[in-house]
Amino acid sequence: MSGCYTQITLADRRRLHHLVAAKVPVSEMARRLGRHRSTIYREIKRNTFRDRELPDYDGYYSTVANDIAQDRRRRLKKLRRHPNLRTEIINQLEARWSPEQIAGRLLSDGVSRVRVCKETIYRFIYSKEDYGLGLYQYLPEARRKRRPLRSRKPRDGAFPATHRISQRPDFIGDRSQFGHWEGDLLIFERPLGHANVTSLVERKSRYTVLIKNPSRHSRPIMDKIIKAFSPLPAYARQSFTFDRGTEFAGFRALEEGIGACSWFCDPSAPWQKGTVENTNKRIRRYLPGTTDLAIVSQRDLLHLTRHINDQPRKCLGYRTPTEVFMAHLREDG
């Protein structure tokens, strides 16, 4: 039996019609057609012809079953039958709402009488008829092709339990010790290329470092962090906290290169590295998602970090991150 599911064809239904008429057991039908028995059971149950006025003609007929199946597929295209709903969903996608947010809001508002799930919206975005609208570019990952359901690989192997944020020492969490950083990746609109920016913030001083990368490959990103932090004394670069993005899977290079430990947030919990998340909001004032990094140099990023690090912060008693960072370098050194 094939491991890849395909829709039942008219030819399959013709064979199935004869097997049903011969009253062959469902498991035997499935074996002969090379299908799972549940597939055959559902096919017969859903596409058997029934007529209350002519019950003698009830039964499974290949061409009728094919017509019933085709009609069901057409009826599932809700967004073609409800143009106003379709327009509303397009507007929300362009506002960068996720399909899950759109479906949830439509349900909670109760404005639309038609219920739409996130899967319907994803199918609409990637359908042959509507792919030309380019709505995929408004999704968080902006994938041109949809990743098959349940194909995402678990990342527990890349990020072992010993490096979870729950194992991180308390003195990092309460900011009582200097030299512990949080890191994230600033992504820009895909049509502008694969370039991105690593943002790194020291938790106690809120000192920010920005590094430009040509791609999201992990090892080059780690190598650039090592190069940027090597001039600092060891006590100023003790650890880094990241999310579980694949760009940080090469974290072991940090320990080998500069002796820094790495910690990782729980899945779907970016708020656990809130310092860099808040700093990213500041950075986005100057580097919005529409920025073309091809015209932004590392020198430009250095000027930007100086500007950000020279702004007084309330949480620092209105001192600047630069002042606090340099004071720790002098005191701890």
Automatic annotation (TrEMBL):
GO terms for cellular component: cytosol. It comes from the Bacteria. Pfam families: HTH_38. The keyword Flavoprotein does not apply. Residues 165-329 form the Integrase catalytic domain. One of its GO terms (molecular function) is transposase activity. The keyword Transmembrane does not apply. Keywords: DNA recombination, Plasmid. One of its GO terms (biological process) is DNA recombination. NCBIfam families: transpos_IS30. This is Integrase catalytic region. It comes from Rhizobium favelukesii.
